[in-house]
Amino acid sequence: MKYLLPYRFKKIGVFIAPIGFILWFCMQRGFITKLFIFLFGESNNQSNFPYHIANVCIAIISFFSFLAGMYFISFSKEKVEDEMIQKTRLDSFQFAALMQFFFIIISFLFMVLYREPTNAGLMLFFISTLFIFWLCFIGRFNYILHFKIIRLSRS
């Protein structure tokens, strides 16, 4: 592939993605708001307006840093980029797309059969759909790549 990033971006992605995910998860669970209240005290003006803005900014920054980290991991070259790795990358993209397709079908069936989703439920569905694709791709690509390398090195 012509448009791959240099290998050093993979290390950056491995660092950025978990931090972004953990920060986003903490913000969703309300830990960030509790931390702000602990550090700065309860705000008396306009019903915690600064906390709301801080939460939104942290949510946006952490979510997109997670996505950027996943992008860096997925689209970075390996130390040795050859045809086997390119084929494995393509097969992993196809596998991830298939898994995402099955996830979408099963999720829609679940939503139709059991309950009408709320706005939060739809947001979770779309975010999970995005995560499923990238996590399936990265997991399968690295598993196959390292499994083949281990198997070929033993032969």
Topology of this protein?
Blueprint: H1 8-29, H2 31-40, H3 49-74, H4 83-114, H5 119-154
Helix pairs in contact: 1-3, 2-3, 3-5, 4-5
Q: Mind explaining what this structure looks like?
A:
With 155 residues, the chain is mostly helical. It folds into two domains: 1-77; 80-155, no CATH class. It contains five helices and no strands. Helix 2 (31-40) packs across helix 3. The model has no long low-confidence stretch (mean pLDDT 84).
Describe the structure concisely for a colleague.
With 155 residues, this protein is mostly helical.
| Helical content (DSSP H or I, runs of 4+) | over 70%
- Give the SSE string: HHHHH
| Nearest-integer average pLDDT | 84
- The 3D shape can be described as flat
In DSSP terms (H or I, runs of 4 or more residues), the helix count works out at 5
Keywords:
155 residues; mainly alpha; 2 domains; 5 helices; flat
